[in-house]
Backbone:
């Protein structure tokens, strides 16, 4: 990243030995998009993105679990959704390891989510 990212609710930068290796977001899912567990939408949505050199060592799962723990303290009982391409096997695996359960599949961005 060219600079320090701005601060907003539920936005985490993940560091390893002082270097940024990933980002986690807990933004509200756009009610206009598919993929909701509440009729009105607007659920908190977990997003994660790590640098390729950091993949495959459990960092995404570890960091997301910590972010979800934090969120459960701040907003007890509030649901969290995530949406990912089903073809993204690493992301599907992270979701499963975090304990997410599949609610539905739908097409978005030209691919199954
Ligand atoms: C998805 C992503 C965050 C995973 O990060 P990570 O730190 O490698 O994740 P973890 O190491 O915690 O777990 C990855 C799991 O997927 C598995 N995996 C990785 N590639 C895989 C593949 N091609 N097929 C099947 N499983 C795969 C790993 O073995 C691991 O599972 P395990 O612990 O049971 O062995 C990372 O690949 C990434 O940033 N991708 C690009 C951004 C992205 O796709 N974000 C999600 C968008 S919704």
Residues:
């Amino acid at each position: 990243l060219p600079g320090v990212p701005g601060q907003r609710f539920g936005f985490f930068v993940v560091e390893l030995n002082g270097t940024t290796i990933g980002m986690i977001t807990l933004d509200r899912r756009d009610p206009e998009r598919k993929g909701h567990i509440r009729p009105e939408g607007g659920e908190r949505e977990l997003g994660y993105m790590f640098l390729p050199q950091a993949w495959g060592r459990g960092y995404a799962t570890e960091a997301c679990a910590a972010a979800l723990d934090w969120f459960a303290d701040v907003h007890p009982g509030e649901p969290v959704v995530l949406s990912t391409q089903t073809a993204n096997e690493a992301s599907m695996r992270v979701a499963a390891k975090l304990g997410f359960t599949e609610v539905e599949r739908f097409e978005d961005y030209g691919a199954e989510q």
